[in-house]
Amino acid sequence: MKKLFLLLLINIIVRLNAQNTQYILSQDDTPLPHKIFYCEGKTFRLQGKDFPSGTQEVTDYTDISQFVEGSENVIFDGDGGANIFSQPIDIGFSFNFFGETYTQLVVGSNGRVVFSNNAELQNLHDKAKYEDRTFSDRDAVHPRVQLPSDRYNEVYKNSTQKFPVGLAQIFASYTDLNTNTQATGAGLAYKYKYLTINTKNAILISFSNMVHLNGDSNGNAYILLIDDSTNDKVVLYTKNKQRAGYNAILGIQNADGTKYFIPNGNTEYNNGKWSSTPTKAYAFTTGQTLTPNYQWQSDNGFHTTTKDITFTPSGDTDKLYLDIRFNENADIKKDTITFVKVKKPEIEGPIYGDCGKPATLRVKNPVEDAIYEWYKDGQNTPIGIGTEINIDSGTYFVKMLNILKNCGLASKKVSVNIDFSVIPTITFNEKTFNECDDKGLDKKKFDLESLVNYPKDESKYSFYFTDEQGNTLTQATIKSGEKKTYHIHVKVKDGIASPCKTAEGTFSILYISLPKAGNIYKDTLCDNIHSYDLENFKDHLRGQDYKYSYSLDNGQSFMAAKVIDPHIHSKVLVKIEHPDVNCTSVVNLEFVFNPKVTANQPYFSAIREAQQCASRTESFDLSQFDNLINNSPNVEITYYESEADAKNGRSPVNKGAYRSGMGTTTLWARVKDKTTGCVSDTYPIVTLIVYSKPKPKTDNITLETCPGNTVYNLRQTIDDNFFQSPLDQNIQLDIKYYDSYNIELSDHDIEHYDTAVHGNRPFIKLYYNATCDNTVYFNLTNYDAPHLLTDNIKICSETSYPLEAFKKLVLGNNQDYEFLNENGNPLAQDITLSTLPYTFKFKLKNKAHECIFSEEMKFYQGNPTAVKNTIGTFEKCDQDTNPDDGKTTFNLNDYRNEITDDANAELLFYTDSLRSNRISNPESFINNTAEQTIYGVASNPEKCPTSFSFKIKVNTPVEIQGINDQYLCYGEPLSMSLSNESDYRSVKWFLPNSSVVSLPRLELRYNEVSFGTYRVEATDGKGCISTKSFAVSDEHQPKIIKIIRDNTKIEVIAQDGDKPYTYIFNGKEQSSNILINPTDNEYTIQVSSATGCFGAPKKVYFLKFYNTITPNDDGKNDTWQVEYLDKMKEVSLTIMDRYGIVVFNSSDTNNLIWNGKLNGRPLPTGTYWYAAKWTDPSTGETESRQGWILLKNRN
């Protein structure tokens, strides 16, 4: 019972501690449970969590929408590959990480991101120097290393030296990726992109379609860096990563490998085996400087803002709240503790069971998570813990305690009386007997009666045992690790009085026999293994769910598994414990080392078998090198294309027929002992050379000589420039010359090769050996003769021909030749032409090869270009911006057909008879005088030039007369005509409304006139057009701009025209602009100026409202209307009864008469009310009026 009590207490404490507060602490910085049981009057000294400079924490990050594949490729040198680093990537902002600031990052191909402020970070992508080394426990070369560790700074390819200053690290999943999947369309992809998150700059690194090196399923990992001022964040998100047999890291580490973070302290994330949560990411802050402000509050009114508080709870449940806010950001940290008062418990029961069974006591209405201890009266130690207990006869009580058990309240005592007169209580019912030893036995035999210790009284009752199959037995044999169930049967003997005659119970036996104490377990290791993970010891006891701890100091202390050097710690004590049974065994682990495997480095400078000429069937038998590396028959030697593959034993090449690439190929040999499986830690290099046939840049060499010569110099400079690629300096190249008959040439014949003797097809043979050679042939030919551009030259009037012009005309590349006379002397003067035709003989000497060629040229008399004998005068009107200056623009090319019929002739125009002042823009030539002579030359390229001339003339348009601005009074017509109309053959009038009148005179009635600018266009007898604009205006008219009217007067306000005005009201003139006491219902008003010019009239109406309607069809007042309301604008008229019901409503000026009806039915006699609103068109003002109407009907 005592053991059960301890286990229950531990479980409760663990369960409560699993829900500890984060920000409310005790005075010794211990986090407290969210629920605390207290005794009345208890005072607690508490404090809020401190946030010192550089606060670091991990929180959940739920917005995963931005985790998509990046848009930019991470750049690796060459075609990428395994175990390498990328070129540096600009972060885009200054990123604070563990108190350091970084501006660039580098991506490792195995799945990590690193930072450093060392300038050598720029060279981390150098494959020859650096390696993205892994510590994932996939083999002995790559042991499991957990964070924090500076081993992750071991990035040198051929050394365990640490990177200077260190590398800060971020891991988001596997650290050992299969980069070969990059070759497939859906393979591993490294990308990044810049983004903005809530106005904050960020950069996202994505690893898509990750596959572990040993073949785990795909997954994606994302590393997000957010610029958040003093609170920069790293967000890690892993998607679709299934828990498998390979280790992975989700966490971060500082540059010197002394600090790290993993989410929620979950050690599986620290290079363990874990699976991703699809909806959760984790945000890490590593260098935050925060100034906290504390705010405490409780349900009982307590309130303070200090960091440290003293709090006394009072109620049955009293909650204490803490909010922590920061000056640096808007983040709020919240925490709550619920204080539950310890109360005096009540016992429910006893509840009696069947015969021979114990009674049950329970806590009535127990408080969740409270600790209840059960006591038997007279005993100082508890007999059980929990909300109920099974007991036999006696007196009992229960205590409710706080978690520290330093205060509590006890219940009333309860007596239990079970009739034990004959059958004792089976106290071990439903009990498991845990039996354990350290003897390493397979099984053990148990005497059941001795084990259960059931009271024995053969005079009153008997008992026996059965197994699950009902077999009666006294002993049970149980295998180690096995649990079996048995039953006890009790029967009262005949003649014995008892309330019950039989009883039964069930119990189980669990037997554990740990490995025999002192056992020696041996692990045989290779000699070069210097790291051994003590976790591997479990393989000796595969399938056993034991707990292990290890001692390196002969049992003085034990620790969890870690990686050790077996050469230093050759003996280890291993403590083995069972998780459910209190039992321990200590055994020995010893290491035995296999002999060292040797691997010698062969020297290949003298090995001919390591060199071959390229061919379609070329291959190497690598086994010929085995004896040079290790000649033992007990080793297996394989070869690899990279040292990493050799170390991992991954992807060996075809040893019997290996086809290498061209040039030098390096292979690494792996030597493995066939018996022990150990591999040498030296990987000898095998260098293979495959060279192709010597490949010259050309298969043919062309040599030329002057026509008639048959001797050539075949000697060539044969160096690297002669070949397509530089020669391998390790291979001897032989060079030989042969004539057309395959006879090798002497040095003299090479440099004085005569085609008449040796033929026209000599060649050079280039070879490394008899099976690896190539041939270059010579093409022997003569230099080409110069190609003359013409063999005749046209002469017009010249008596000599310029020498330089002759050279250019005769030969396109004349600068490559020297011109000589017939005697071979250089030509030095122009060519004289005394008679035509004339044949000129000369020679050309090539300046490059000095060959001389004889040539001749014929000079002949050319024909003139044809022009017309008579060319007329070309006339134009002066229509430009200054029509009176006698100048305008001519396109002289328009007159080509009047000058010549020769379509191939080029026309040049001049302003002088000497034809020295050429007109450069004949298409837009402006004449100098109204009548001017133009001179020209017509030139056909095949003929001689011919001169011509013609005249151009500018005609000035006739000026329009008799047109002036017009000022019309109201009603006057418009009449316009030109006083010199006879000078024109047509006249057009252009009106402001865009209409055109084509008549000599313009006649318009007043209502046809559009006031504005008019234009008249007249064409004279020479076709020249004159135009003139004039205005037609009403500005002399007085215009009524406002009329002010009431029942006593009409006031008129006018403007424009000459004053004083005369005002006319309904045809009656007066000088005053005010008409007193108007009597008519409507007035037509007009104003005339002092010169008698009338303006446009306006009408004024006086509206008449009546108060009676008698719709009896007698012709009097049968309808109701407002006189002249229909002359107004924007009218509305509404009539309502005394209840406000609308009986008539209209805004139509054609429907303003009310007939005293509603919907066609007469309305009853009574008073009705009208409301009228309108805009007066004469005044522009809005007016309204309301009043009553008396309706008298027959009723």
UniProtKB/TrEMBL annotation:
Signal peptide: 1-18
One Pfam entry name: CHU_C
Name of the protein: Gliding motility-associated C-terminal domain-containing protein
Species this protein is from: Riemerella columbipharyngis
Taxonomic lineage from the root: Bacteria, Pseudomonadati, Bacteroidota, Flavobacteriia, Flavobacteriales
Record keyword Signal present: yes
Xref: InterPro entries: T9SS_type_B
Keywords annotated in UniProt: Signal
Source superkingdom: Bacteria
